[in-house]
Design brief:
Layout (H helix, E strand, L loop, with lengths): L2 E4 L5 E5 L2 E5 L14 H23 L8 E8 L6 E9 L9 H8 L3 H7 L11
Antiparallel strand pairs: 1-2, 2-3, 4-5
Length: 129
Amino acid sequence: MIEITFDGAKVITAHSGDHVIRTDQPVNKGGGDTAPSPFDLYLASIGTCTGIYVKSFCDNRKIPAENIRILEHVEYNSETQLPDSIKLEIKLPPDFPGKYRESLINVANLCLVKKSIASPPEFLVTTSY
C-alpha cells in the first residue's frame, strides 16, 4: 500500500515502505516548484524503469553502463496535453559492442512501467472514514 499525505500548499507526498516521494506543482500552477510534479515522476518512472533493464543487461555481460544515457522525448497532444508519443533514445558510447544493440532495444522494451501503460489496470476510486 502507498499512503498519500497533503503537506501544505501544493505539496503531496507518497509514503511507500521506507521511502518518501514528494511532489509539488510548478509556480505557474500555484505550487512552489520544490519537487517534481506527479506527471514528471510518471515520465521519469518510464525512463528509470527502462534504465534498470538496460543496466541489468549490461551488468550481465560485463559491459560498462556509466557512459550510456537514455533520452526521453515526449510529444504532446495539443488539445488534451497528454503524451501522443514517448520515444526512448538509448545513447551508446562508441565502444559499446554493436552486436548487442538490437538485444538492448528488446530488453528496454520489457520495462514493466511501459507494459502497465500498454495494458492499463482498472482504476477504482472510493471514499472511507
